[in-house]
Amino acid sequence: MTVTDHRTAESHGHTHGPACGHEAVIHEDHVDYLHDGHAHHEHDGHYDECATCSCQGCTDLCANCSCTDCTCATCNHNTCACAHCSDSCANCTCADCSCSTCKHAA
Asked: 59-102: per-residue pLDDT in tens?
């Protein structure tokens, strides 16, 4: 199960979507819309603020983070650490996954 931080974003004068003019990035189980240094995603009729990388020295959004040694559990680009897998942690489906940053690992 993916747990998403629930911080409501400021009100918007438009609905985010394919023609809204903001970059859309798939992040875990939702789509973030990037603008003004924020990443917002729709949640129960409003927009939530998406997470910022928790690595020391990084201030990027998890949807955009490019830390080469990232250990943040909510960043988009982590790669499964299992020896037989090369999927991103957001897409890993290893039945016996032991990677600490994969979304489905127990």
From this structure: 888 888 888 788 887 777 677 888 888 877 766 788 888 887 77
Of 82, 79, 77, nearest to 61 by C-alpha is 77
76 near 65, Cβ under 8 Å? yes
Q: Are 25 and 63 in contact (CB under 8 A)?
A: yes
Q: How many CA atoms lie within 13 A of 84 on its CB side?
A: 6
Number of H helices, E strands in the chain: 0, 5
Pairing assessment for the beta strands 23-27 and 7-8 based on DSSP bridges: unpaired
Residue 38 pairs with which residues in a beta bridge? 35
- Rounded Cα distance between 98 and 40, Å, is 30
pTM equals 0.58
User: What would the two tokens of residue 68 be?
Assistant: 């080469």
